[in-house]
Design a protein that fits this description.
The protein has one domain: Ribosomal Protein S5, domain 2 (2-Layer Sandwich). The chain is an alpha+beta fold. The chain is built from ten helices and ten strands. β3, α1 and β4 form a beta-alpha-beta unit. Strands 1, 2, 3, 4, 5, 6, 7, 8, 9 and 10 form a ten-stranded mixed sheet that branches. It is an enzyme of class 2 (transferase). Pfam families: GHMP_kinases_C, GHMP_kinases_N. It catalyses: 4-CDP-2-C-methyl-D-erythritol + ATP = 4-CDP-2-C-methyl-D-erythritol 2-phosphate + ADP + H(+).
């Protein structure tokens, strides 16, 4: 068997998430600041001569054909007419439905990895456009750079964000993203801001108050983390995070709140390994 291509499929945080207005197609115009993290799922890719796509392990309760990893591989096959296949292995560390982009990151990592292994030679913008069919957060992971995003999240401008450490915790609940964006009480009229404002002033997550009111476990997490810093929601949740002054501080807070909450410590990362793979 050929040597596997091993890649980190990183997490992201939304440092701000402003919802400006609802679009005619039912989606929302957003402004958000994506921070990539050096923590994520570990993925290995093996190219095969057959067109078959396999994933190990499969996700309990999720048919293979509905998994974003499988969808991404099949989409690249169909778009390029490629006749190769792949075996994909994943060590899952990121929580599903946590707002840290696990599924979108896995899909983006699959697109970039297989584009490299299969030598389909698509540019980053082409891969990002394909990825947008799978989810609004996929393009930022394809490009592999922390970014300012607008539209539904597909209009990206890379930014270099300050070095920070974060503690991210996952309350024992799952947030239905579609429910939040359909909810009549969601804030949808935050004025547009510039990148400069986003980078120099504190913004908010327009989903936060609604999510906290609907999910008691998330409200509990906010109150617990508030003892140590300023907790924030990423995406629509359920993950809650706080900025820390050092790795040691983040690890100490995590030790203090365990086993009440599960979580992880991560370092800010402006470029992911995918950005390097795209330039080879």
């Amino acid at each position: 068997m050929n040597e596997p291509l091993k890649l980190l499929s990183p997490a992201k945080l939304n440092l701000i998430l402003h919802i400006n207005h609802r679009l005619d197609n039912g989606y929302h115009h957003l402004q958000t600041l994506f921070q990539l993290l050096n923590y994520g799922d570990e993925m290995s890719f093996y190219s095969t001569e057959s067109e078959c796509i396999t994933l190990t392990p499969e996700f309990p309760g999720l048919p293979l054909e509905q998994n974003l990893i499988y969808k991404a591989a099949r989409l690249l096959q169909q778009h390029t007419g490629c006749h190769f296949g792949c075996n994909i292995q994943i060590t899952k560390k990121l929580p599903q439905g946590g707002g840290v982009g696990g599924g979108s990151s896995n899909a983006a990592t699959t697109l970039v990895a297989l584009n490299h292994l299969w030598r389909t030679q698509l540019k980053a913008d082409e891969l990002a456009k394909l990825g947008l069919q799978l989810g609004a957060d996929v393009p930022v992971f394809v490009h592999g750079h922390s970014a300012w995003a607008e539209g539904v999240g597909e209009k990206l401008i890379p930014v270099d964000l300050p070095h920070k450490w974060f503690l991210v915790i996952k309350p024992n609940t799952h947030v239905a993203t579609a429910q939040i964006f359909r909810h009549p009480d969601l804030t949808r009229n935050t004025p547009l801001i510039t990148i400069h404002t986003a980078l120099t002033q504190d913004g908010q997550n327009d989903c936060e108050n609604l999510v906290r009111s609907l999910y008691p476990e998330i409200e509990k997490a906010f109150k617990r983390l508030a003892q140590y810093g300023t907790p924030k929601l990423t995406g629509t949740g359920a993950c809650v995070y706080t900025e820390c002054s050092s790795k040691a501080e983040a690890e100490q807070i995590l030790a203090d709140i365990s086993p009440e909450f599960e979580g992880f410590v991560a370092e800010a990362m402006n470029k992911s390994p995918l950005s390097e793979l795209l330039t080879r």
